[in-house]
Write a structure and sequence with these properties.
This protein is an alpha/beta fold. The chain has one domain: Aldolase class I (TIM Barrel), CATH 3.20.20. 33% of the residues lie in helices and 19% in strands. The protein contains eight helices and eight strands; from the N terminus they run βαβαβαβαββαβαβαα. An eight-stranded parallel sheet has the order 1-8-7-6-5-4-3-2. Strand 2, helix 2 and strand 3 form a beta-alpha-beta unit. Helix 1 runs parallel beside helix 8. The mean pLDDT is 97. The structure holds D-xylitol-5-phosphate and zinc ion. The site of zinc ion has 6 residues, from strand 2.
């Protein structure tokens, strides 16, 4: 099943609650939450207080994307403030397996993320241990960038590796592959064709009429 995960990085924080209701009305079930530390990526976004506040008001599935150095330092706090799934970058820690184990130990879903210049093979050793692989389609750090086409080849490669391992939904649980950055209603079909099933969209949802934008994207993602 294809899933749309709107990124609140592009939302209007003055009316965040209203915008969340709009995307929920459109049929959205996931919310992509970008946490930046100003070290792993150049920018700083927001953290626990924002997440725990919105957690009180929505039942959306919180897909938290940690763009932070040494994510192991904060897993417990992100679990506590309402994350359902925690995505961290394989480039940000020395011990990927232990971070996966810790996330699972906290009762949350675990996702591993790769930047555009990290090869698809980097996720291979962990495929049987995670719920999701997030393939960045822009350099992490900012919303509103253009999709880097070669990243979709990595999506294809990860899907092939997962299928070969039986993580195809037939022989075992299907691996979720998420794409993030520069996705809009014109190019979303390319990401789906490459094998992604979870689509992040920031600007394409929250710039303008969030409800109408989300509906239009969901329609493109059907079937
Ligand atoms: C970038 C973030 C993305 C970003 C996507 O570092 O991880 O989630 O919000 O924004 P758009 O869809 O505008 O490229
Ligand atoms: Zn993100």
């Amino acid at each position: 099943m294809n899933i749309l995960s709107p990124s609140i990085l592009a939302a209007d924080f003055y009316k965040l609650g209203e915008q969340l209701r709009e995307v929920e009305t459109a049929g959205v079930r996931y919310l992509h939450i970008d946490v930046m530390d100003g070290a792993f990526v150049p920018s700083i976004s927001f953290g626990m207080p924002v997440i725990s506040t919105i957690r009180k008001h929505t039942g959306l599935f919180f897909d938290v994307h940690l763009m932070i150095e040494k994510p192991e330092r904060y897993l417990e706090e992100f679990a506590k403030c309402g994350a359902d799934l925690i995505n961290f970058h394989v480039e940000a820690t020395k011990d990927v397996e232990s971070v996966i184990r810790q996330i699972r130990g906290l009762g949350k879903k675990a996702g591993i993320t790769i930047k555009p210049n990290t090869p698809a093979e980097a996720v291979k050793p962990y495929l049987g241990q995670v719920d999701m692989v997030l393939v960045m389609t822009v350099e992490p750090g900012f919303g509103g960038q253009k999709l880097i086409p070669h990243c979709l080849d990595k999506v294809r490669a990860v899907r092939e590796m997962a299928d070969a391992m039986g993580l195809d939904g037939v022989h075992g649980p299907a691996l979720d592959i998420e794409v993030d950055g520069g996705i809009d209603r014109e190019n979303v079909h390319l990401a789906l064709e490459a094998g992604a099933n979870v689509i992040v969209a920031g600007s394409a949802v929250f710039r303008g009429d969030a409800e109408a934008n989300a509906r239009a994207l969901l329609e493109k993602m059907e079937g």
